[in-house]
Amino acid sequence: MRILTGITTSGTPHLGNYVGAIRPAIAASAAPGVESFYFLADYHALIKVSEPARVQRSTLEIAAAWLACGLDPQRVWFYRQSDIPEIPELTWLLTCVAAKGLLNRAHAYKAAVDRNLAQGDDADAGVTAGLFMYPVLMAADILMFNADQVPVGRDQVQHIEMARDIGARFNHLYGDPAAIPFFTLPEAAIEEHVATLPGLDGRKMSKSYDNTIPLFAARGELKKLIAGIVTDSRLPGEAKDTEGSNVFALYQAFASASETAAMRQAFAEGIGWGDAKQQLFARIDAEIAPLRERFHGLIAHPDRIEQQLRAGADKARQIAMPLLARLREAVGLRNLGEHAPKHAAPTQATTVAPQFKQYREADGRFYFKLVDGAGRVLLQSTGFAAAREAGALVGRAKSGAMGADELLRHATLAEGIDAAALTAALRALHAAE
Ligand code: TRP
């Protein structure tokens, strides 16, 4: 299962980003069986921000923030979008199949047009082609790595649907129906369980409302900002509502269940707003202080972060390069001296380990396939009634506990693949695990 998400590098990370994105993403990346891709969407930042220093500073701060919060770059793919030249290249290939009418319907673009028309301006006044193309660049981000799931807020769901649409169209136009499609069609994983954090004024914490608490504000500043959170005017001793209280919602986002219950009780008993804010400050600072210290340690050495991001890009390009080579071949950007068969696998692809893919077919049964780095099917399983059965076989094959012979009792080799090739693939997979 591959999870991918991008963070636009257009600002300073705040508590809302931490609670809504950074903290849950890092927790999810520790789950077994998940491959996580997190990247700094700096090309996307250029659509909104025209101050170069701000793009650079934001990229540094966001990278340092994710690392300080415990992201492990050994375990995940952590990279900067602009370090992957395959992404803009794929953007162009997708641009050539994306329907303009689809892009006309994108919410952000439509909102800009509606604003212009309401003011009596030309429909496209002040609208860049970058804003218009935003969904295609985002589709390239996602499709490049065959992400299964993209955790996003509600505002981004349309973009994921567009990525599916554009990916499906490319698969259909250039793919071989008998082979594994070029692109996995991604699904939006909407984070409904992650509460949106209120900002200082009670609206959703967001840069655009200017109501944020910077994630790594100094202690004194954190305290001052918390003191400024809007509350009602009830006096100490008067019972207070937890429902609709910004102080309570923020507290809850950082507290354990028992701490939250105690605070609920304190509200009922009329805790003063000053005391409640003091407890909120103490609770947030207890979680953030060690991260803040790490953040400052990291940001003091931007060159080290630069190195980490470049290493992350190398790792990500091991996936991007072979896929892009296949795509170039598929659309006809080919070596003129070679008479390549239509869907020949590129030679680089062999550097990427083969992998098992598990899925369910329309017949309701569970299957697995073994696919090499170029996406070629090596082995196709029979159908299983339970996902567990398929999963157990895959697990044993991956661990080396089951060899080719036994595997072939549950699966058949693809055309042109022999048992020796299967054994070699299993060995490569095992070496890469
Ligand atoms: N558009 C996303 C946002 O503003 C950022 C982003 C860029 C992204 N590319 C992505 C998110 C790919 C998920 C997947 O929040």
Short account of what is shown:
The protein is α/β, with parallel strands linked by helices and 433 residues long. It has 16 helices and 9 strands.
Mean pLDDT comes to 92
Question: CATH topology of the largest domain, anyone?
Answer: Rossmann fold
The name of the CATH superfamily of the largest domain reads HUPs
Number of helical segments with 4 or more residues: 16
**In what order do the strands lie side by side in the largest sheet?**
6-7-8-9
Number of strands: 9
- Helical percent range? 40-55%
Features of this protein?
50% helix, 16 helices, binds tryptophan, Rossmann fold, globular, alpha/beta, Tyrosyl-Transfer RNA Synthetase, three-stranded parallel beta sheet, 433 residues, single chain, Double Stranded RNA Binding Domain, 11% strand
Overview of this protein structure:
The chain is of the alpha/beta class. The chain has three domains: 2-197 and 301-330, Rossmann fold, CATH 3.40.50; 216-234 and 244-297, Tyrosyl-Transfer RNA Synthetase (Orthogonal Bundle); 355-432, YegP-like (Double Stranded RNA Binding Domain). It has 16 helices and nine strands. The protein has a four-stranded antiparallel beta sheet with strand order 6-7-8-9, covered by helices on one side. It has a three-stranded parallel beta sheet with strand order 1-2-3. The chain has a two-stranded parallel sheet with strand order 4-5. The structure holds tryptophan. Tryptophan binds at residues 4-6, 8, 41, 44, 138, 141-142, 150, 152, 156.
Note the topology.
Elements: E1 2-8, H1 15-29, E2 35-41, H2 42-48, H3 52-68, E3 77-80, H4 86-95, H5 100-104, H6 107-118, H7 129-143, E4 149-152, H8 157-174, E5 187-190, H9 219-227, H10 246-254, H11 257-268, H12 273-299, H13 302-331, E6 355-360, E7 366-371, E8 377-381, H14 387-399, H15 404-407, E9 411-413, H16 419-432
Parallel strand pairs: 1-2, 2-3, 4-5
Antiparallel strand pairs: 6-7, 7-8, 8-9
